[in-house]
Design a protein that fits this description.
Structural class of chain B: mainly alpha
Number of helices of chain B: 12
Number of domains of chain A: 2
Helix content of chain B: over 70%
Strand content of chain A: 15-25%
Distance between the termini of chain B: 9 Å
Helix content of chain A: 25-40%
Number of helices of chain A: 9
Low-confidence stretches of chain A: none
Low-confidence stretches of chain B: none
Order of helices and strands of chain B: HHHHHEEEHHHEHHHH
Largest interface: A-B, 38 and 27 residues
Order of helices and strands of chain A: EEEHEEHEHHHEHEHEEHH
Number of strands of chain B: 4
Shape of chain A: globular
Mean pLDDT of chain B: 93
CATH class of chain B: Mainly Alpha
Radius of gyration of chain A: 18 Å
Oligomer: heterodimer
Largest sheet of chain A: 6 strands, mixed
CATH class of the largest domain in chain A: Alpha Beta
Strand order of the largest sheet of chain A: 6-7-8-3-9-10
CATH superfamily of the largest domain in chain A: P-loop containing nucleotide triphosphate hydrolases
Structural class of chain A: alpha/beta
Radius of gyration of chain B: 19 Å
CATH architecture of the largest domain in chain A: 3-Layer(aba) Sandwich
CATH topology of chain B: ABC transporter involved in vitamin B12 uptake, BtuC
Strand content of chain B: under 5%
CATH topology of the largest domain in chain A: Rossmann fold
Number of strands of chain A: 10
Chain lengths: 247, 329
């Protein structure tokens, strides 16, 4: 049997007395969108931090294609095929859009190219052009990140995470703060990515979650409350109590 | 297509070409008038410009404020003096200082790169002060007097040789060497490695998620800067015939930072312009008043307030626009 692309086993971390993530287990199917939902403080972002290596779990395991990557630093996770975006835009603000993408794509070049002039990085440059096109940022390529609108910055955040051609992409609230129209466009965009990459999403917009996800994981107070296809999860009374405050 | 950062670097090259042309004019006039003092002063400006380039690699590109770059400058100066007093060979002195400053930079880099921001600045400062005090108290190194009587040497260039005692010859030689170090730094900064340094300055926290360790590029930048500072320092005893513990003091490190900020942080070439300006000002104002540091201090404050990007940082964008117009769309 082929190992799942991403598998989480009994992942836990404490912050002081608080069990921020408590014994969470799930596995993610290839070329699917798995969405993690839950009220504020449920531990969703902390879970992402544990999976991406930003935080070291107290116990439990993170397996990427069956390989145990638990507690590895982020650059090792990246090497294993995992990339992530951030809930709060985390880019190189004073650099141009193109340079942000090029920096993220330069890992695709053979390592010896790191000592050759940048204009020789043709693989990275091709990736940059491809992403600019796909994320409708070609017109903004020469602008600095600081000059972009919030929506454009959020799109670039996803594009930067995707630039290294990861196998698994963790997207932490990619549509956070976006207008309705932008949110819809971004949803379409994310949906189109799933041919090349497996996506794990944190999302608050319930409508979006239901239309976009193949699989939904509900978190509540650090624990996994339920998981399943969107329709099933929505019908789950425990989820309704925790998430909407009524049954 | 040339991207914005490559274009900025090319603008710096153009400004360097202007500086080199001006230096050649200075050399010609100096030679015609038989001047010694100003040519020596200009050579000193270039040498401290090399130190300032090393500060700019750290501060302007990697975002690391070193307040102790004089440690490597002084190491280079002392080692060069010691080597020259035993073997009067330029190449032996340069080889020894390159190696020693690389090793020292590696050791120092492991210590200082454990911390960030203000702590980085404080530890670089502390390390340099400790080294300066050790030198100051070591009789074998001349203690507070430093080492005097470094011989004038002939620099063997194969086809010809240049005496370190020749005001014009040595000035031109140092100019060439500083240009080589500038070129080396500029080359590195325009590779993906260099871009990683720029990214470190912009947002260090994101780097690991792009697949890179942050320690490796930081350390590499620190070692490169140490070597450039060390080699610059190695030229000092050839010019002045002596070294003293002052070369390692905070005044030297601090001056290098002031030089970079005045000249234009993150422009590389600004380090050289800043050094030329500050060396000249110190000499000119110093000939009128012993309190020249007060004037320099006020000028520095003025530069920070009115020209926050420094001289080259203010001029360079216009050149970048000019270059952009010249490119094919």
């Amino acid at each position: 049997m082929i190992a799942p692309i991403l598998e989480i086993r009994d992942l836990s971390i404490n912050f002081g007395g608080l069990r921020a993530v408590d014994q969470v287990s799930f596995s993610v199917e290839r070329n699917c969108i798995t969405t993690v939902i839950g009220p504020n403080g449920a531990g969703k972002s902390t879970l992402f931090n544990l999976i991406s290596g930003a935080l070291r779990p107290r116990n439990g395991q993170v397996l990427i294609e069956g390989v145990d990557c638990t507690g590895q630093p982020p650059y090792r996770m990246q090497a294993a095929g995992l990339a992530r975006s951030f809930q709060i835009t985390n880019l190189f603000d004073e650099l141009t859009v193109a340079e942000n993408l090029r920096l993220a794509a330069q890992i695709l070049e053979p390592t010896t190219k790191i000592w050759r002039p940048v204009r020789g990085s043709t693989i990275a440059q091709a990736r940059v052009d491809e992403l600019l096109e796909r994320f409708s940022l070609t017109d903004k390529a020469r602008h600095s990140v600081a000059e972009l609108s919030h929506g454009e910055q959020r799109r670039l955040e996803v594009a930067v995470a995707l630039a290294c051609k990861p196998k698994v992409l963790l997207l932490d609230e990619p549509t956070q703060g976006m207008s309705q129209g932008d949110t819809q466009d971004t949803a379409e965009l994310i949906k189109s990515l799933v041919h090349d990459v497996t996506i794990v999403l944190i999302e608050h917009d319930i409508g979006l979650v239901m239309s976009l996800s193949d699989h939904v994981i509900v978190m509540h107070q650090g624990q996994k409350l339920a998981e399943g296809p969107p329709s099933e999860v929505r019908a789950n009374p425990a989820v309704q109590t925790a998430y909407f405050g009524h049954a | 297509m040339v991207d914005a950062l490559t274009r900025s670097m090319r603008a710096s090259h153009l400004l360097l070409a202007i500086l080199v042309a001006a230096s050649l004019v200075v050399a010609a006039i100096g030679a015609a008038l038989g001047d010694i003092f100003y040519l020596r002063l200009a050579t000193e400006a270039l040498i401290f410009g090399g130190l300032a380039i090393s500060v700019d690699i750290l501060l302007g590109y990697t975002g690391l404020l070193s307040l102790g770059q004089a440690l490597y400058f002084g190491l280079g100066a002392y080692l060069s003096a010691l080597v020259l007093m035993v073997v009067p060979s330029f190449w032996a002195a340069i080889a020894a200082t390159t190696l020693a400053s690389a090793v020292a930079g590696l050791i120092g880099g492991f210590i200082v790169n454990r911390v960030r921001g203000v702590y980085f600045a404080l530890i670089t400062f502390g390390m340099a002060q400790v080294a300066a005090k050790i030198v100051y108290n070591t009789r074998a190194l001349g203690a507070s007097d430093g080492l005097i009587g470094v011989p004038v040497i002939d620099i063997n260039l194969g086809v010809t040789s240049i005496s370190s005692g020749s005001p014009v010859g040595f000035f031109l030689f140092v100019l060439a060497l500083i240009v080589v170090m500038y070129a080396l730094a500029a080359y590195l900064l325009d590779t993906p490695f260099g871009r990683l340094l720029i990214a470190l300055r912009a947002n260090e926290a994101r780097i690991p998620f792009l697949g890179y360790r942050t320690m490796t590029p930081r350390l590499a930048a620190y070692v490169v800067a140490a070597v450039i500072a060390g080699v610059s320092g190695a030229l000092y005893p050839m010019l002045r015939g002596f070294v003293s513990p002052e070369l390692m003091y905070f005044e030297t490190s601090g001056n290098a930072v002031i030089t970079v900020v005045t000249g234009g942080t993150g422009t590389l070439v600004g380090a050289l312009y800043g050094s030329a300006l500050l060396t000249l000002l110190k000499s000119v104002i110093g000939s009128f008043t012993p309190h020249h540091l007060i004037v320099i201090g006020i000028l520095f404050m003025g530069a920070v307030i009115f020209l926050p990007k420094g001289i080259m940082g203010s001029i360079r964008p216009a050149i970048e626009r000019m270059l952009a117009r010249g490119e094919k769309p």
